[in-house]
Amino acid sequence: MNYGYVKVAAAVPPVKVGDCKFNVEQIESLIIQANNQGVEIMVLPELSITAYTCGDLFFQKLLLDEAEMALIGLLNFTRSMNIITIIGLPVPLSNGLANCAAVIQKGKILGMVPKTFLPNYKEFYEKRWFTAANEVKESCVLICGQQVPLSSHILFKTPSCNFGIEICEDLWAPIPPSSYLALQGADIIFNLSANSSAAGKGRYLTNLISGQSARCISGYVYAASGFGESTTDVVFSGKALIYENGKLLKAEHQKVSEELLSISEIDIEHLRSERRKNTTFNTSASALAECAPRYVESAGIIAENNMTLTRPIAPHPFIPEGDSDRDARCQEIFDIQCKGLAKRIRHTNCETAVIGISGGLDSTLALLVCTRTFDMLGKSRRGVIGITMPGFGTTDRTYTNAIRLMQQLGITIREISIKDACLQHFKDIGHSPDQHDTIYENSQARERTQILMDAANQTNGIVVGTGDLSELALGWATYNGDHMSMYGVNASIPKTLVQHLVRWVANTTDEPVIRETLLDIIDTPISPELIPANEDGQIKQKTEDLVGPYELHDFFLYHMIRSGFHPRKIFMLACNAFKDVYDEETIKHWLTTFYKRFFSQQFKRSCMPDGPKVGSISLSPRGDWRMPSDATAEAWIEECKALKTS
User: Fold this and answer.
1) How confident is the model at residue 296 (pLDDT cuts 50, 70, 90)?
2) What's the burial of 113, exposed, middle or buried (CB within 10 Å: 0-12/13-18/19+)?
3) Does residue 168 have an active-site annotation?
4) What's the whole-number mean pLDDT along residues 499-519?
5) Is the pLDDT of residue 250 over 90?
6) Is the residue at 92 inside a domain?
7) E-strand spans in 184-324?
8) Which one from 7, 54, 68, 115 is the annotated catalytic residue?
9) Which of residues 498, 520, 547 is at a domain's end?
10) Does one domain contain both 239 and 374?
């Protein structure tokens, strides 16, 4: 099973200008390697059979004949192979010469795609030799003894994906051909390029490819001419780039005189999921209904039944990789949280923000957001009212951290124990305080919420919620208890990201005492502290022992909501991402738990308070996620049971 992935390659061979025999030998070597590694589609640079920098040699009949003979050799060479190869060569027309991409498989030329935009400025003189695609009169061409479709609007169809082709300068046009190809159904765009090197040009190029693959919601595979093309006044350095919906999967550069084969997998299932949800993309596609492409079927690729992924799978998809990216993302998210809260406070003319402080991660992040928001609004931090409400399970560590952090941040501190109120409540309803069940736990959460709501009424304020996205997904909140607030600043922040945000604040603060407190809060086990501590005064009730590791649940949540992946694909991805952390049985167990809880707890999400959306995943019933509260998880659970482990 390939799980919706297509293995692709961008290859840059060593090249000799005008030496078709040598060039084809290098191409054959790369085809063998790619085919042996299960590559389904491989692209090589522009005019890779002759070389790009032939100049007026393109007018020589001998060179054109040699190019065709070389292509015949490649057809014979690939006759027994499934791999589709995209190579560049000059193709004679009745009135001109086309710079073409030839798509070959199993000894057959599936189609020829001529270059649309011919650069004729600075060091480029392509109009001197070639005819642009829109000036080509032929719809097919006789080459290598085959009648071959010829068009810049060919959509190639395989069992795994649809793909289209553009050549070098096409990408640089205001509206690249790939825009139309993607709207007509191309999942992947392959670009054969020459692209001479210049200072600063590399970054501009990667920005172009990233932006185009994101705009087209497509894969984009780019191969540019290498070292052997360098001549006279220009240098070519050889690039192989693979993108997916704006994200870089692979970037490699050719070493001097060496071949380059860059391989990765593009997730077609993910791309099609993104397109299905994007109404702008679909509206744009409908406008092109009258511009039907030419469809060409491949001979049928036999994809690997057990594809080995070469692309990395991020275990923490909500967390950007790299310190600089992570810091920038944390700053951005924190800013969104603060501005959302600022708008709500200003709109309601509230004087205070009331928040329950437990000494845990979620309330810590919410408190940091509140103090920053009051700073932004020019309000005194004394308007932030932090209430710590010790209960039966509160430990000295969390209590001390809660008090210390509130003192250090300069907010108004209130301490209201909930023990007596809960004991009275147990007496009123006839419940034994020695029975540590759901009633025992939930009554504490609801008592705390009542205190917060009434305190907000006392001070013309709003209750700022602390619950996070992971808790909403799992339903790990007491209905009408900590589930409720007047504005939930953490509503779309998953637990793994909460940790990074708090750590980011700790690492960027100028106050060493605040940093020390925040770091200790991060190191404290996650717990609702609703059950009394153990005999050593340590936290007894640890959330992850009960519902499972948050890093797994956040991983499941991301891939379920973002792409709608099948349970078996999420399981495969998790096994890949966490292979050195959890065994397959453990992952299967918690994936099953995730689906059970996610489906059964939708009723809590259906009435969740407002809160700022900060990323691509939100469970707000008014925004990204609309699900009936009574939907059954049976099909998902059965699929989990059927998962096979090693």
Assistant:
1) confident
2) buried
3) yes
4) 94
5) yes
6) yes
7) 188-193, 219-224, 239-244, 247-253, 260-267, 294-297
8) 115
9) 547
10) no
Domain residue limits at 145: 5-297
Res 353: pLDDT: 98
* Token couple for 182: 């993607």
Please tell me whether residue 101 adopts helix, strand or coil conformation.
strand
Whichever domain contains 272, its CATH number is 3.60.110.10
Catalytic one of 54, 100, 168, 338 = 168
Contact in structure between 71 and 89 (CB atoms under 8 Å): yes
- The secondary structure of 174-222 as a DSSP string is SS-HHHHHHHTT-SEEEEEE-----TTHHHHHHHHHHHHHHHTTSEEEE
* Domain total of the chain: 2
Q: Which of 40, 46, 66, 126 is catalytic?
A: 46
3-state secondary structure of 70: helix
In a domain, 496, yes or no: yes
Strands 96-105 and 108-114: antiparallel
What confidence tier does 124 reach under pLDDT thresholds 50, 70, 90? Answer: confident
Last residue of a domain, one of 547, 581, 610: 547
- What SS3 class is residue 360? coil
Mean pLDDT of the chain: 92
CB 266 within 8 A of CB 244: yes
Q: How far is Cα 559 from Cα 565, in angstroms, rounded to an integer?
A: 6
| Rounded distance between C-alpha atoms, residue 444 and residue 417, angstroms | 10
| CA Rg value for the chain | 30
pLDDT tens-place string over residues 379-408: 999 999 999 999 999 999 999 999 999 999
Answer whether 526's CB lies under 8 Å from 494's CB. Answer: no
Residues near 437 by Cβ (< 8 Å), separated by ≥ 6? Answer: none
What single-letter amino acid sits at 277? K
Instruction: Examine the domain organization and report whether 514 and 391 are in the same domain.
Output: yes
283 with 358, same domain? no
Q: Are 388 and 406 in contact (CB under 8 A)?
A: yes
pLDDT at 529: 65
Query: Does a structural domain hold residue 564?
Result: no
- Give the integer Cα–Cα distance in Å for 295 and 96: 25
Same-domain status, 506 and 383? yes
Side by side, which strands form the sheet with 96-105? 108-114, 96-105, 84-93, 41-43, 5-12, 260-267
* 90 and 192, same domain (yes or no): yes
**DSSP β-bridge partners for residue 413:** 386
Least Cα distance to 394 among 409, 415, 413 occurs for 415
* Strand partners for 21: none
Query: Residue 564: left (phi > 0), alpha (psi -120 to 50), or beta?
Result: left
pLDDT value at 527 more than 80: no
For residue 432, what is the domain's CATH number? 3.40.50.620
